[in-house]
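Q: Here's a chain of 334 amino acids. Please give me its 3D structure as tokens.
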Amino acid sequence: MSTAIAEIQQKIVRPSPGAVALGVMTCVFAVAAGYGWLGESRDYSNYLSVYNALTPTSHLSSFRFERGYMFASWFCKIYIGMSFTQYYTILVAISLALKFRLIWKHTSAPIVAAIIYLLLLYPFYEYTQMRAAIAYAFAYAAIDKYLDGRRETALLLAIVAVLFHNSAIALVAGAIMVLLVSKRPPIFVAGLFAAMAIISSFMISPLIPNLQLASPLIAAYMDKGLYHAPPLLYGRNVILLFILVCSTIFLRPWQTQRDGFFYYLNFWALMSFLALLRIPVFAFRISEAFIFSFFLFTFRFDNSHQSRIPVVLMILFSGKMIYTAISDGWIMVP
């Protein structure tokens, strides 16, 4: 009997303390977002009003949010009976769980990486832009599944991502582009993407009127800052470019398929920003979709001190972003 018990105990997989810590962080920060522990976010009232307006006979096409998000909202409210705070909490938990799983799988210091994520991106996504947060989580999960050879699962996750937020198309498109150039050296990829960005920036102007007609939501975004283009050397872009350069020198992530994939995604991010300078809101939104990929190669350091330099820069970057989140009213709003 004792031998049988011993064999059963050996087969039981005990979660590591790190995995437990990530699980606790997921739960705590999901509840914090759902119940507004850090104050009411900028978009909270918009999400709440849409959720409250849903009825059993609602036509999802009459709402400005994407169909995937609206169907999930309608199902959870009408069939499950969730309150909005419960619904928000569940979506944020799914988003954080997917991202923390990738951090656990791909980084050398997952707890540190998760903390930096919470400082850097959580205020802007999970706490505020819930649709984008969960869409990007599914998109990155799709990329990971594709790299594991599970293409059908990757396709399904990519579709879900786009249904929750249209900007996930940029991530999917970036992933496809990276597949085509992943075996090329970084200088070739950087030059190719830069050329594509310059060409796209000249081609985007004639398309602006058509984009505004495509969707009221797109028109509203474009009207916010259509003629106030940010400088290319915007502070955030400079920091990200510096992190990318340091990673190139000290990590050489393109030498492995998986690290190289996430590394090259950031070339696409800079290309997107340059190509969309004439539409500032889109430029920021789409380029920000790629920032999470930094975590999946900058935190894969070895025992050398140089390999930790990109991580130090990410920590400094997170400090700047959390200051921006508070000063601009993304969190800690009474």
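Q: Can you summarize the key feature?
A: The chain has 17 helices and no strands.
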